[in-house]
Amino acid sequence: MKKSILIIDDEEDIREVLSAVLKIQGFEVLTAESGLKGIEIFRSNSNSISLILLDVMLPDIDGFQIIQVLRKESKMPIIMLTAKDRTSDKILGLELGADDYVVKPFDTSELLARIKAVLRRYEDVENEKITTFKDVFVDEENRKVKFKGKDIFFTYTEFELFKYLLSRANEVVTRKEIKDNLWSDKELYQWSRTIDVHISHIREKIEDNPDDPKYLITIPQRGYKLKI
Prior knowledge:
By secondary structure, this protein is α/β, with parallel strands linked by helices. Helix content is about 45%, strand content about 20%.
């Protein structure tokens, strides 16, 4: 079955070029020229779409708002496309749940590589089996987590990070190890607080008191430890 990609971008030239390139690569393509139209198309085709290419600057609502809407409904991989090259915009997109970020103008071969990398990571998670570790139950095929008997909803990025920390349970994991093992934009994760923010989001979901964590602990000057 062909993978389907939804392009949400108000520039017709971008939509046409990307559609042609992606179809040559064997993808099916859906397009939307506005944010609201993109959300409508996604909701009508959520079972068949494999990835979303999302522009930040749109005529109705911006890409950051769209991510917030989509992340309440889906863990679908999202790559942001934007003319903005500010690190703060990249950080915001990733913190809201984007999986990667490509700045316009971009080389189509680089974008294809990013798409394939994100899809590969997503499929690797989906193809793995159920994992249980003490009080943690992870159904990796359906991307479901139970922690201390409670159902936890993680975004795609949070799920990957939690799964990696679980694989290193009760060990200190450095930011560098997280960056090197989970993300392609290593410079961004090295010099931003993005990893800290993802950690904070996970704490909010698994801790009774996120300000005084018992499970996901910060080890000063070293990294993090998931105590299970």
